[in-house]
Amino acid sequence: MASDVRGYLPLPEMWEQLSAYGTRQRLDVESVTLPDAWTTALGQAAPGQLPRGTSAFTIDGTRLREGTWGMEDARSTRHVSFTVFIACPAHEPCRLLRISKLDRPLE
Known about the structure:
This protein is an alpha+beta fold. It has 3 helices and 4 strands, in the order H-H-E-H-E-E-E. It has a 4-stranded antiparallel beta sheet with strand order 1-2-3-4, with no helix packed on it. Strand 2 and strand 3 form a beta hairpin.
């Protein structure tokens, strides 16, 4: 999971450069769906390979970035999608297990 998150975040040097632009980013979620391939994945998993209560959800949305470029306000939007893998065993807290690469969701 930690390596998945690191893949989404800039390196420390890039954070420093980005701070000069006052960039803000948000995700407007448009849909959360159970990928069709998840049923196949569950059927192919060996016993005990997946934690109890594991499921996959594909999130589709629009990423909005706003900030300053030079002296000009800048804004961009882009459609994004990714899949999260979550384990929610009965009577236990849910745990985020993995996040797919951006724009490479489980179909």
